[in-house]
């Protein structure tokens, strides 16, 4: 007679597998919502452009462009070509159309190749209506080794994976270690990840032809912030930490970084995250350093530093929580050892923190599965 299979409630191994299947399924849902929500239908929203020209003719032309575009464009006028170039280099506008017998479109593609493509699609028909070909001048092109300018985004991806995958190791396998030791491991791991990132940006793929040490510094700030937050959260989230860091540093991070589409081409949710999320701080800071004369670099560095500070606070809270756990169990153990004189002597091993350490060892046993989930996406 064939024995029916045991139900999940009566089969611990099956229950364990089904429970762990929740993480990849939730990742699937989250990644679909994030990537398709952020990238599926890019449309300009209040994209800042300028019309270059003096006098009422330029103002009428600018108003005509604005009326046809609606909320897609924010159109302004500037008196001179030099003023338009200055605004492109300070990233106040994404394109400038010079009216005249030979129409010219001035762009800065290092800021965003996809944004430049949108601006060209807008103004090429305008020039065609005037019967003239459109001349496109790029005042800030990316380096020849990174013609689309998206290499910095893929550098962000590599550094992010190295950082949040290290969380699974330090937070999981390293759970038996004291928090101070884990903090030192965070410093070391983020240093190594940032050096790998600098090697990719410099001698390996030549994304940065200058300012490599400055880029390395931002890479370290970015990586250390992820590791501090992730290791701190591991104390509370346990095996759900992988999903947590994936939400924070992949789903919401990559999509709002501006590496593929800048916020002017995204919906309001991801566009608003771009203002303060750490990936945006890294990508825009790197662009500022490498291509735009360090304009607004300080704000982006402070964004990365703020995430680092948040990570230090989260790690401090986790350390305090673990310390209180150990003290609580120590007090409970002391009460149990204060047995009556006629009771049998205790043979328990010394160290009141043993139950906490045992729990951390159990967490460490799940670290291999957690690591596979962290790097398998």
Task: Give an overview of the whole structure.
There is one protein chain. This protein has 377 residues and is of the alpha/beta class. Helix 5 (151-172) packs antiparallel against helix 14 and helix 11 (278-291) runs antiparallel to helix 12 (297-337). The chain is built from 14 helices and five strands.
Short description:
With 377 residues, the chain is an alpha/beta fold.
SSE layout:
Layout: H1 12-39, E1 47-52, H2 56-69, E2 73-78, H3 81-89, E3 96-98, E4 104-107, H4 113-129, E5 135-138, H5 151-172, H6 179-204, H7 212-237, H8 241-251, H9 253-256, H10 268-273, H11 278-291, H12 297-337, H13 354-365, H14 367-375
Parallel strand pairs: 1-2, 1-3, 4-5
Antiparallel strand pairs: 3-4
Helix pairs in contact: 1-8, 5-6, 5-7, 5-8, 5-14, 6-7, 7-8, 7-11, 7-12, 8-14, 11-12
Key phrases:
single chain, 377 residues, alpha/beta, 5-stranded mixed β-sheet, 6% strand
Q: Helical amount among residues, as a percent range?
A: 55-70%
> How many DSSP helices?
14
Query: Which regions contain 5 or more consecutive residues with pLDDT less than 50?
Result: 341-353
H-E string: HEHEHEEHEHHHHHHHHHH
Q: Based on helices, strands and strand pairing, what is the structural class?
A: alpha/beta
Structural Rg: 27 Å
Beta-strand fraction estimate: 5-15%
């Amino acid at each position: 007679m064939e024995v029916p299979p045991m139900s999940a409630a009566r089969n611990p191994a099956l229950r364990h597998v089904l429970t762990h299947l929740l993480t990849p399924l939730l990742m699937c849902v989250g990644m679909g919502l994030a990537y398709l929500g952020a990238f599926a239908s890019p449309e300009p929203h209040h994209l800042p452009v300028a019309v270059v020209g003096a006098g009422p003719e330029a103002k009428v032309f600018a108003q005509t462009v604005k009326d046809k575009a609606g909320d897609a464009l924010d159109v302004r006028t500037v008196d001179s070509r030099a003023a338009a170039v200055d605004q492109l280099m300070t990233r106040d506008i994404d394109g400038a159309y010079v009216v005249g017998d030979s129409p010219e479109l001035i762009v800065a593609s290092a800021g965003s190749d996809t944004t430049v493509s949108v601006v060209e699609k807008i103004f090429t028909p305008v020039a065609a209506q005037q019967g003239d070909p459109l001349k496109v001048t790029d005042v800030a092109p990316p380096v020849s080794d990174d013609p689309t300018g998206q290499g910095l985004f893929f550098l962000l991806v590599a550094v992010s994976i190295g950082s949040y995958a290290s969380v699974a190791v330090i937070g999981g396998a390293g759970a038996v270690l004291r928090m101070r030791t884990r903090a030192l491991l965070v410093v070391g791991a983020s240093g190594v990840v940032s050096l790998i990132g600098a090697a990719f940006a410099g001698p390996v793929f030549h994304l940065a032809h200058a300012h490599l040490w400055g880029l390395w510094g931002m890479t370290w700030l970015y990586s250390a912030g992820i590791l501090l937050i992730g290791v701190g959260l591991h104390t509370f989230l346990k095996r759900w930490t992988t999903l947590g860091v994936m939400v924070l540093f992949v789903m919401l991070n990559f999509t709002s970084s501006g590496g593929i589409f800048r916020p002017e081409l995204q919906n309001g949710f991801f566009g608003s995250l771009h203002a303060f999320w750490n990936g945006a701080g890294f990508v825009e800071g790197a662009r500022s350093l490498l291509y735009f004369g360090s304009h607004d670099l300080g704000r982006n560095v402070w964004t990365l530093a703020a995430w680092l500070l948040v990570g230090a606070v989260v790690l401090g809270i986790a350390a305090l929580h673990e310390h209180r756990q150990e003290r609580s169990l120590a007090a409970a153990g002391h009460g149990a050892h204060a047995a009556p004189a006629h009771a049998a002597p205790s043979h328990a091993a010394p160290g009141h923190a043993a139950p906490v350490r045992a729990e951390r060892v159990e967490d460490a046993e799940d670290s291999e599965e957690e690591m596979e989930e962290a790097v398998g996406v």
